[in-house]
Structure formats: C-alpha cells, structure tokens
Design a protein that fits this description.
Structural class: mainly alpha
CATH topology of the largest domain: Growth Hormone, Chain: A
CATH class of the largest domain: Mainly Alpha
Order of helices and strands: HHHHHHHHHHHHHHHHH
Helix content: over 70%
Radius of gyration: 21 Å
C-alpha cells in the first residue's frame, strides 16, 4: 500500500511546480500552496489520531486517507490552477487523515516480527515508491509529451492500491489482535515519563536537520555539483535511506532505544560537508542525509509504539507527527534565514541543535536506566 501510494503522490509532487506554472499560477502561489499543503497534512494528524483512538476504527481512517490519493490522477481533468490546487490539498489532507492510523496498524502488524524490522521494511518500500513515481512520470513526459498523460498513467497504481487496501482489510480486520494475544503489560506511568525526553529529542534533532532542497539549491548556486547530477545525488540519498532503514530497524530490535543516538551523530557533519567540502563533501552529505532519514522513519516510529499502550497509540502518533513536522519546518526557516549569512552559520546552528539532541538523549537514557533497573537497552 505504501509503495503504491508513494508512486502516485511522489510522482505527482515531482511535477507540481511546473504543472501549476503551466496552468497559469505564479511562483508565490506555488510556494504558498506547497506550504499550506504540508501544514494541513501535519496539523490534521492530531485530530485524526484522537478520533481514531476514540472510535477504534483505524481501518476507516486508513482507507479514507489512501482513497484521497485518487485526487492526483484526477489532475488530468484540471483546467485551471485553482482546480489543481484543490486536488493537491485533498491529497495532503488524506495523508494527514491516514498517517496516525496507518502507523498504529503497522505497529500491531510488526509486533511479532520486531517493530524495528517492520518499520524498516515499510520505509524501504516507501523509498522504492518515492524513486519509482517520479521516474514513471519522467518517462511519460519523454515518450508522451504531456502532463495529462502522466497523471492518467497513475490510475494504474491507484487501482492496485485500492485492491491492496481491500485485501489487507479483509484479511486482518482487527490488527490489534496481534498484540492482545501476547497480553502485554505496560507501566503507563513510566512510559509517560520516557515520552517527555523522547519528544524533546525528536524536536531538537529535527530542528537541526537540513532539508534536501536547500542543499540542492546550494549545490546548484555554488556550482559544487553539476546540474544533471543533483537528481542522482537525491537518488543516492534515497537508496541510503532504504538500506539503512532495514539495518537500523534490525539493530533497534536487538539493542533498543540506544540506537537513537545514531540519528544526531549522523546529522552533525551533514551541514559542514554540504557547504564547505566541495563535490565529495556534498556526496557524503547526501549519503548521511539518507542514513538519518532511514533512522528517523524507522527507529522513531517503532520506539513510539513500544512506549505507548494500544488504546492511545493513534493519538500518540498524531502528536509525534505534528512535533516531527513542525520542528523540521521551523528549522528549515532558520536554515533559510542563515543561508545568506554563510555556510559556517548553518553548520554552527545544525551542530548546536544536534548536540542539544544528544543532551536530550542522555536524559532519556537516565530515565530508562532508572525505570528498568539499570539496563536501559531492554
């Protein structure tokens, strides 16, 4: 489901800017709508996560959210940028509706095979779709020559997505049963105390994590990387993301929350490499960026499931996703403002945030050690 979904919406998002321009939208409109779409996708997760927990109908929210991806193939019928914008916002709204419930279902399904491994497989499949979608659209543009044909082709993975949804829902209508059978007992008071440093760690590490478009902008503006190779660098980052998601997921299942420390450690050198060490530094920064993304999408989500009870997990994922996206968005604004100051300022800010995240990790480690009798790796 995630692979097919990424093929559709990442394929569409890869040409959102030029397609809106083709329909007559201004650059300001494109930027404003993109920001509004991302904000909508994250903000609604608080609400959808809360109601998913209250109703217990995680499949309803998941199915509804995935069906809204169908707005992307419908762009073939858009005859104005206003109509296209409505469809693009519907897709982002759908992502916000489904994400907490989807992650909750995945946390149940991955319980018996290892949550790190389960979320790692999920992230790897995501990245396959994220690479395949834009490539499908690129081939369509080259061979058929129009945006409409590309959006029409995306109907095929959408039909397959709907089929996968129906099969998954019919086969496992109650995903929570994977955990109920184990009769897991959690000390919710202890886990609540763990969630505070865990949330602060997430906010600090994401506030100091570069967005790839800013790195790509610098690569182009400073002629560090040839224009034609910048998409290749992004593909390399996505490949590193997929591979490290699997490896770090398996490592999490064996070592526990201690693996979280790898995220800020990977983040610390990224800005300096990207802005100060030329072509090979830029390549290393792209690889580390993918390594960090693989860890974030795997370990952070898997650990949250282990720290929350079944009946509160949808809300927990809603809060987590909001903190994750909000802090990354706020950090990206700071990076954008610092860009005119210089690469050294960007590096200093990024390192400061990651060192602070290491401090939050130390706090988390102490809480774990206190709660678990001196063995925080359990």
């Amino acid at each position: 489901m995630s692979l097919l979904g990424d093929i559709i919406y990442e394929g569409g998002r890869s040409v959102t800017g030029p397609y809106l321009l083709f329909l007559g939208a201004s650059a300001f409109t494109v930027a404003w709508i993109s920001g509004l779409g991302e904000f909508t996708g994250y903000a609604v997760r608080l609400v959808s996560g809360y109601f998913a927990d209250r109703t217990g109908d995680y499949w309803i929210f998941t199915i509804a959210g995935y069906l809204m991806i169908g707005a992307i193939p419908l762009l073939v019928y858009a005859r104005s940028w206003e109509a296209a914008v409505v469809l693009l916002l519907i897709e982002r709204l759908g992502k916000g509706i489904r994400s907490p419930s989807k992650d909750t279902i995945l946390s149940h399904a991955s319980h018996q095979v290892g949550r790190g491994w389960g979320f790692g497989i999920h992230e790897a499949m995501d990245q396959v779709g994220a690479v395949a979608g834009p490539l499908v659209f690129a081939v369509s543009l080259v061979m058929l020559g129009g945006y409409g044909e590309g959006f029409a082709i995306l109907v095929i993975p959408f039909i397959l997505l709907v089929a996968a949804l129906v099969v998954a829902w019919r086969r496992v209508p109650d995903p929570a049963s994977f955990e109920r059978g184990e009769q897991i007992r959690r000390d919710e008071g202890q886990n609540a105390r763990i969630l505070l440093p865990y949330g602060i760690f997430t906010v600090l590490s994401m506030a100091g994590f570069l967005v790839f478009p800013l790195m790509a902008y610098h690569f182009s503006a400073s002629s560090v990387v040839p224009e034609a190779q910048i998409p290749v660098f992004f593909a390399i980052a996505m490949a590193a993301d997929a591979l490290c998601a699997l490896g770090m997921g398996r490592l999490y299942d064996r070592a526990g929350l201690s693996v979280l420390i790898l995220i800020p450690l990977a983040n610390i050198p990224i800005a300096s490499l990207a802005f100060s060490f030329g072509y090979h530094g830029a390549l290393a920064a792209a690889v580390l960026w993918g390594v960090s993304m693989g860890g974030q999408e795997t370990i952070l989500r898997a650990a949250l499931a282990d720290l929350t009870s079944i009946r509160k997990r949808g809300m927990a994922y809603g809060i987590f996703n909001t903190l994750y996206g909000g802090s990354w968005f706020a950090g990206s604004i700071v990076f954008g403002l610092l860009y005119d100051v210089g690469g050294s300022a960007i590096s200093a800010y990024s390192i400061l945030m990651q060192v602070a995240a290491l401090g939050a990790f130390s706090w988390l480690w102490l809480v774990l050690k206190r709660n678990r009798g001196g063995d925080p790796s359990e």
